[in-house]
Design brief:
The complex is a heterodimer of chains A (254) and B (472). By secondary structure, chain A is an alpha/beta fold. Chain A is built from ten helices and eight strands. A seven-stranded mixed beta sheet of chain A has the order 1-3-4-2-5-6-8, with helices on both faces. In chain A, helix 8 crosses helix 9. The longest helix of chain A has 17 residues. The termini of chain A are far apart. By secondary structure, chain B is mainly alpha-helical. Chain B has 19 helices and three strands. In chain B, strand 2 and strand 3 form a beta hairpin. The chains are: A alpha/beta (254), B mainly alpha (472). At the A-B interface, helix 4, strand 7, helix 6, helix 8 and helix 9 of A face helix 1, helix 2, strand 1, helix 5 and helix 6 of B. Strand 7 of chain A pairs antiparallel with strand 1 of chain B.
Chain lengths: 254, 472
């Protein structure tokens, strides 16, 4: 019988398929926390289901996930807890779901953040990606809906994208479980520090703003050495974000 | 951490904020977009020689058009209902004959052979078992057809188009356009619809959506509508038209419910919940051909099984209660008879009767058991001998027999119409009430959302009954 090979990664010696165990909702004593972020309707819940073996209801309409869903998987004897965040277009405004997503990435300090993007609408999706890259540097981009992109005659240079963003990029079609083994492998490598990201920082900032941000970021780094997101905190302080100002005062940002 | 340094940082940020001016937020957003555009330019290639999204936009032009949008919506709703009505018949009678005609006598004789006392045997087998069996026989087949079809439509991406079509109507009634999505969820289950209102940001509009979700006919009420429409309204016209007429009657009630949703939303937004309508972006996602078997499987396992389980959990104690109130006597009358007699005159005013009102009290936990309760109580009052004892819920072999019993209980076309109206307009089931409380955290609004539909139901059935009696 001819068994279909889903991906090269599954056959690869580095990917240990036997080491994978989907844990469903049993997430006690986990080793790592993984956050799942992304725009609405990019298939986050489908990726979540594919990773955890859960059957969290998915639907083709934006905003399907209204509660924060949690699940888990075990890979190479390490337990990963997965948190499915509500879909948002941005983290800059103050609607309830955007705040929930931002707070989890900022204060929940996930070991890895998976950003699920729609390969068909990459440019618009990058808005959120670039914002998250300012907050955390342990990110993998899950380039989802590749099957639809193919149908729409869109081709994406994954390697260049990965180099430009400074993070690993894994193309997937989560509905068909394609690319999920690669995603799991990448998540595990980031969590264990085998892959170190050098995330893209927002570049096209006008000079006067860039100068102000730098001054402020330097001061923040003086006070908190090794902080990964001094620039982002500077952005928020300049914006006058009271929540961040209070968090800074309370020392919650480190 | 040094508090003085933190204060310095914040002071510095205040100072710098003055220097860089008001455009900071816009500038930052623009920078992000510029970066995104640069990255995409280097990495994404689109073959423009082949048209993209062509089919999607063609479908959208039709299903969201002013002329065809609404007719297509009703056509799809009608088709789903028709398939549910027609398809559920056969498995329903099969399950009924298995669980009720065959299993029930076996259990009874089994209980008799081991000498179970009559009250225990009656309480457990005639009360609890029969209620559960009835719910499975009547609820499972339509749910197993309705839910997968609904899920297929959802996965395909049709729901946002419905929201798009209804958006202007909701806006005119002072509500949020996304309420169309929560309304659609309510057609499956009101409790699910109430939870889904979390997608609405504005608390005012969310509250409106929660309060009015009960006007979406839920899964527990579709079978009641379908059964009564088939027996009474379909019977008014010649046989060949009866199924289409009963279908239209059911759709009519569903649309009336939507009418009430708009009306009550409008009234609320003009009185108790005044405020501006918030704008929002509704994204029409691409159509995605559903993964047919996977969708069928998950919707059967998740939705159908969960809702069925809930129905069973509530039906079991309700069956026990029915059996008890029919078999506990105060003086010469059982509690059930006494209640029915005292509710009868009020029921008459509404074009209903005491049996129906009592059935709705018993069925507060789950709408699914209204019809079997009504049948059982009617038999009790009219004294028709159906072969079963007091307080025994049963399924009748044919719809004709059901109709005969109800007519013997004094039912007319008016009773049927008003029952359908009251089934639409009454309090939410206990699960939904609890969900409303959990979501609003407000006793006041929970009570309001529970009482308001009943009062509306009383008013509407009363008016219909009075007008009907003047005309006929």
């Amino acid at each position: 019988m001819n068994t279909k090979v889903k991906s090269a990664c599954e056959m690869c010696a580095h990917f240990n398929a036997d080491g994978l165990k989907k844990l469903g909702i049993h997430t006690d004593n986990f080793d790592f926390v993984v956050a799942l972020a992304g725009n609405p309707n990019t298939g986050k819940s489908t990726v979540f289901n594919a990773l955890t073996g859960l059957r969290q209801h998915t639907g083709n309409w934006p905003g399907k996930t209204v509660t924060r869903a949690e699940g888990g998987f075990e890979y190479n004897t390490q337990k990963f807890k997965l948190v499915d965040l509500p879909g948002t277009y941005s983290l800059l405004s103050t609607s309830e779901d955007e705040e929930a997503a931002r707070d989890f990435i900022l204060f929940g300090k996930p070991n890895v953040t998976v950003i699920v993007v729609d390969a068909n609408r990459l440019e618009r999706n990058l808005n959120l990606v670039l914002q998250i890259l300012e907050i955390t540097d342990r990110v993998v981009l899950c380039l989802n809906l590749m099957d639809e992109a193919k149908r729409n005659h869109i081709s994406i240079d994954v390697r260049t994208l990965s180099r430009d963003l400074g993070i690993p990029v894994v193309p997937t079609s989560a509905r068909f479980s394609e690319g999920i083994p690669e995603l799991i492998q990448t998540i595990s490598e980031i969590a264990n520090g085998n892959i170190v990201c050098k995330p893209h920082k927002i570049k096209s900032v006008p000079n006067n703003i860039e100068k102000a941000v730098k001054t402020l970021a330097n001061e923040i780094e003086k006070e908190f050495p090794n902080i990964p997101n001094s620039r982002w905190i500077a952005f928020r302080l300049l914006e006058g974000d009271t929540q961040i100002i209070n968090a800074l005062k309370a020392g919650q940002l480190v | 951490m040094n508090q003085k340094n933190i204060d310095y940082i914040i002071e510095l940020s205040n100072e710098l904020r003055w220097q860089i001016g008001d455009d900071f937020h816009d500038n930052l957003t623009e920078s992000i977009y510029a970066d995104a555009a640069n990255i995409v330019k280097d990495t994404v290639q689109v073959d423009n020689s082949k048209k993209r999204f062509r089919l999607d936009s063609k479908i959208d032009k039709i299903v969201t058009s002013k002329t065809f949008g609404f007719p297509i919506m009703f056509l799809i709703l009608g088709l789903v209902l028709w398939l549910t009505i027609v398809g559920a018949n056969y498995p329903s009678s099969l399950l009924a004959s298995l669980l009720l005609d065959n299993m029930h006598p076996i259990l009874k004789s089994g209980a008799a052979s081991i000498g179970t006392p009559w009250w225990l045997d009656g309480f457990l087998i005639d009360g609890v078992y029969l209620a559960v069996a009835w719910v499975i026989a009547v609820m499972l087949p339509p749910m197993a057809i309705f839910f997968p079809m609904f899920t297929l439509l959802e996965d395909f991406g049709y729901l946002p188009r419905v929201a798009f079509n209804l958006d202007s109507l909701f806006k005119k009634s002072g509500a949020h356009g996304k309420q169309a999505l929560t309304m659609s969820m309510g057609f499956g289950c009101n409790a699910a619809g109430v939870v889904a209102t979390r997608i609405i940001d504005s608390p005012r509009e969310r509250l409106i959506a929660i309060i009015t979700n009960n006007f979406s006919l839920c899964n527990g009420r579709w079978p009641t509508q379908i059964l009564i429409a088939t027996i009474f309204i379909g019977a008014v016209v010649p046989g060949s038209y009866s199924s289409i007429v009963s279908l239209l009657a059911v759709i009519g009630v569903a649309v009336l419910g939507m009418g009430f949703m708009f009306g009550v939303s409008w009234a609320l937004s003009k009185t108790l919940l005044k405020g501006e309508v918030s704008t929002f972006n509704l994204e029409l996602p691409p159509y995605r051909p559903p993964r047919f078997w996977k969708t069928i499987y998950t919707s059967l396992i998740d939705r159908t099984a969960i809702v069925l389980w809930r129905a069973i959990v509530f039906a079991a104690p309700a069956g026990a209660v029915i059996w008890l109130i029919s078999n506990i006597y105060v003086g010469n009358e059982s509690i059930a008879e006494w209640t029915i007699n005292s509710l009868d005159s009020f029921g008459f005013l509404l074009g209903l009767n005491g049996v129906i009102l009592l059935a709705y009290i018993v069925a507060i936990p789950a709408n699914e058991i209204v019809i079997p309760t009504i049948l059982m109580l009617t038999v009790l009052v009219t004294g028709i001998d159906s072969g079963a004892g007091a307080g025994v819920m049963f399924e009748l072999d044919s719809m004709n027999a059901t109709g005969d019993i109800l007519r013997a209980g004094g039912w007319t076309l008016l009773t049927a119409i008003n029952l359908m109206l009251f089934s639409l307009l009454h309090n939410p089931c206990s699960t939904t009430i609890y969900t409303i409380y959990k979501e609003t955290k407000s006793t006041k609004w929970t009570v309001f959302a529970s009482i308001m539909p009943v009062i509306l139901g009383f008013i509407v059935t009363f008016l219909v009954a009075q007008v009907w009696r003047i005309i006929f």
